[in-house]
Amino acid sequence: MMRQLLYSELIKFKLELLTLVQCFKTIKLFTINIQTYLSINLLVFIGIGINIFILSTLPEIVYTQGIYDIIYYVGTVIYILFVAFTNYASLKYYKKERFNWLNIIITVLLLLILLGGKHFDLSYGKAIFESNNIILWGVDVPDLFYPCLLCSILLFSVVPRKFWLRDNTVELKGIIFDNKVIDVLWGERNDLTTSQIKAISSFYSRQDKRSLLTNLYKSILIDSLWLNGRSTVRQWNLFNVYLAFIIYNMILNYNIENYVLRYALYFYLIYTIIVMICRRLKDSNSSIFWIVVLFVPIINIYVLYLLYNKTSALYDKESNSIFYYAL
Questions:
Q1: What is the Cα–Cα distance from 52 to 44, expressed in whole angstroms?
Q2: With b meaning 16 or more CB within 10 Å and e meaning fewer, what string describes 279-299?
Q3: pLDDT in tens, 147-184
């Protein structure tokens, strides 16, 4: 049974990779609205920062200042280009591609600003939970770069919706590919068919009417122990809060002297993290083998999107198709 499950998940993983490659080949078909624009850019910014930090602290490598600079600048340039792409996708959504010249100018200016600069220090601080502010490494970043980057994102997130969206326009909420919604963020969709609404109602009618504490108990302490099943974005976020509480209070603040209890807690945390990642991937109709890609730099940002942003997949019997909705 397990062997058959892993084989089917591997086949699904291969198909998803092929689909992702095909999407990149026709990337001009992507359009995104403002809610998705902000969420995706924030997620990628955090993902790039995590990758920069991890790649600059690998113990097997002897780092020089030149290596630090390369890691930081390559990651930051990738993010600038990604923001430029989402700007273009947002312009396409609102049918304002003629303003892409402004996007190109802003992107070039951000790259030019990044090349100059004053010293910027990245310190340990709370990253390793120490009170001493010991400098880990530093790169040259101009003081104006991050304010300019933030202003450019705010420009392309406020202007299109404020001045270009008409009152009678039906705004699809999510990522649109070839005029089809492939993901939805921040609330309900307004493009659902009658059969899709029935599928959502059927899902909610099967849920027990539980109190908040009971729901938290089930989502965190029970579901995290069983691989069979699915966990929504909301349940995944609740588990993250619970995980942070456990790590901070039981591992960092308290010294567990009994090594059996200490390693039992480590095993429990690792096991529940793997289980919840698999449940979240299954909820988003993704293969559990994406967990392996978490260890691949830059590409692992897509896995973070599947975990933190990709909404739940629901099956519509009447149209025999899968659609996405924030459960």
A1: 12
A2: bbbbbbbbbbbbbebeeeeee
A3: 889 888 888 877 766 665 554 454 555 566 555 555 65
